[in-house]
Amino acid sequence: MSIEELARENVRRLTPYQSARRLGGNGDVWLNANEFPTAVTFELSQQTLNRYPECQPKAVIENYARYAGVKPEQVLVSRGADEGIELLIRAFCEPGKDAVLYCQPTYGMYSVSAETFGVACRNILALEDWQLDLQAISDNLDGVKVIFVCSPNNPTGQIINPQDIRTLLELTRGKALVVADEAYIEFCPQATLAGWLDEYPHLVVLRTLSKAFALAGLRCGFTLANQEVIDLLMKVIAPYPLSTPVADIAAQALAPQGINAMRERVAQILVERQYLVNALKDIPCVEQVFDSETNYILVRFTASSAVFKSLWDQGIILRDQNKQPSLSGCLRITVGTREESQRVIDALKAEKV
Q1: What DSSP string describes 4-58?
Q2: Residues 10-38: pLDDT tens digits?
Q3: Which residue, 30, 41, 64, 93, has fewest beta-carbon neighbours within 10 Å?
Q4: What pTM value is reported for the model?
Q5: What residues does 101 pair with on adjacent strands?
Q6: How many Å apart are CA 299 and CA 320, to the nearest integer?
Q7: Of 194, 253, 233, 255, which is closest to residue 78 (Cα–Cα)?
């Protein structure tokens, strides 16, 4: 029996998530991963690397709870929000029996994580405006244990109608978890659902330090939920999910000074986003620039594949969304520095339509 044959069948058939780094490229303008464009610096204060870290570092949990407006017992910290996705599926879904549900186009890790654990995927296409198709969701809830709703949605950039999410929460009481993925919520903080946790025991909110906190390389995410959910996730989480340096930096980033710095970065990105949007609308090869509440912009191009390759060859790396349902001709552009935006604008203006 070969090594391939020894592997689980669903893993043999699995198409892995194509992260920005996996896709490669030799660019010098990286606008494909929704990262903050410049590095922030921290001094490590914890040097006890001979000891294992806390499973849930107290300073990190308390600082994040204060920032998010929830209780410390409603917070779990993990290796990025991606680990939060996996923990929820592992804790709540029976392989070969239960299903997760999500609405495409959306973040690809929901399906990859479910398939990895042998959990079925219900893919409900979003409406034309990329809002939830509540009727189709309602018709497909049988056997569903976890529903993922990304808001603001990646890659489309818009907030999901909060009244629709409330309707979904009412539909799923006692039946399934509703997981609001708020990776980009710092760019539209008024849209958070964290304040709904007390009202809905089956609501879960995912967060990250990778975007507005400019710490994608730290791999630090948060799951906000009621204590009953957190206690179950604690049964399946790894013994030491955060290394001591990660916990040290995360606690600093979530201190008042770090949060103020994050908000200044958000204000900077919003200015740069508007500059890029305004410029894109006047470029001949651009068919449509979609509204965004995030640090990226979804754009539909004439001959998008040629545009993508042309910029790639010039060292400008964007994210191709052509294979996502309803996103034919679309590329996603992370909002970078003014210099990076200008490189994109100048390259696109030179394209022959």
Answers
A1: HHHS-HHHHHPPPP--HHHH----SEE-SS---SS----------TTSPPPSS-H
A2: 888 877 766 665 566 678 999 999 999 99
A3: 41
A4: 0.95
A5: 122, 147
A6: 10
A7: 233
